[in-house]
Amino acid sequence: MSWNTDDEMEKALRASLRRKAAPPDFAAKVLAKARQPESISGAKKSWLRPPFTLALAAALMAVAIIPAVVLDYQHREEAKGLKAKRDLLTALAITRDQLRHARDEVRRNTRNIQ
Amino acid sequence: MVFSVALRFLRNREVAEELAQDVFLQCYRQLEQFEDAAHACSWLRRAICHRSIDELRKRRFRPAIGLDDVPEPASADGAMPDLMMQDRLRDLVGELPEKARMVVVLRYQEDLLPAEIAELLEMPVSTVKSHLHRSLALLRGRLEKRGIAHMKKGGEAYELEY
Question: What is the spatial distance between Cα B34 and Cα A102, in angstroms, rounded to a whole number?
């Protein structure tokens, strides 16, 4: 056989590259894989592997915990603010009473002098 | 078709089988997306071509051909030289650069037209034709160098450009 022309070369290539049939159990293997749940059939679901699972769990926990911590902090700050407000009002009331008392004393003394 | 394209391109039976199974599995899982058999066939062909090229780039493995791929012993009608030559030609096709190899496999195994190959591999038709022309010249040159063919033309230019 010779390949002096492109036609002859192409013919030789077609003969060499004839389709090769898949192994007899090929279809059975594909069907067996297809019957497996998708999540465990391949390594493609890399996010289900342990390091990723842990990271995912940590992220979910963070998402769940952080708002609670923030709310608790806000409540505490609010309570502190209310207490400070109450203390201030008490202090103002005491000061007001003391000033009234002082004013009354001044008035009484002034009257006595006159 | 799917297994055979992967086998001829990768020259590794195990990897070709694994890859072909993956492609069929993917196809099976998205069956509802295909309009008809021709659409599914075209999808399979495209998928196996691109997956095979990716696999070759990823692995760069040595060819592993099984007993099934070895030519049968010679028969009385003198078929031996042809079978040996076919085997040698397959090896030479396997030595072509990846894109040229895929073009040759699709042209001579799948019998696709250059325009169909161009669409499948997302390259201009002129590039496909150029790959074919240069691959034929290179294969002819290599066969001649090994004394298998008796050629007047050579294909060294293609080899040098790669």
Answer: 96
Whole-model pTM: value is: 0.59
Are residues B94 and B63 in contact, defined by beta-carbon separation less than 8 angstroms? yes
ipTM of the complex: 0.71
Amino acid letter, residue B131: H
With an 8 Å Cβ cutoff, are B105 and A17 in contact? yes
Q: Which chain B positions have a beta carbon within 8 Å of A43's beta carbon? A: none
3-state secondary structure labels for all residues of chain B: CHHHHHHHHHCEHHHHHHHHHHHHHHHHHCHHHCCCHHHHHHHHHHHHHHHHHHHHHHHCCCCECCHHHCCCCCCCCCCHHHHHHHHHHHHHHHCCCHHHHHHHHHHHCCCCCHHHHHHHHCCCHHHHHHHHHHHHHHHHHHHHHCCCCCCCCCCHHHHHHC
Position B107, amino acid:
R
d(CA B83, CA A7): 19
Distance CA A47, CA A51 (A): 8
Ramachandran angles phi, psi of B70, nearest 5°: -80, 135
Please tell me the distance in Å from B154's CA to the nearest CA on chain A.
11
B10 in reach of chain A (CB within 8 A):
no
Is B121 within 8 Å of B132 (Cβ atoms)? no
Q: Which pLDDT tens digits describe chain B residue by residue (162 residues)?
A: 888 888 888 888 888 888 888 888 888 888 888 888 888 888 888 899 988 888 888 876 555 555 455 444 444 454 445 677 788 888 888 888 888 999 999 999 888 999 999 998 899 999 999 999 999 888 888 887 766 554 444 444 444 344
Give, in degrees to the nearest 5, the angle at Cα A82 between A79 and A83.
Answer: 85
Cβ-based contacts of A29 with chain B (< 8 Å):
21
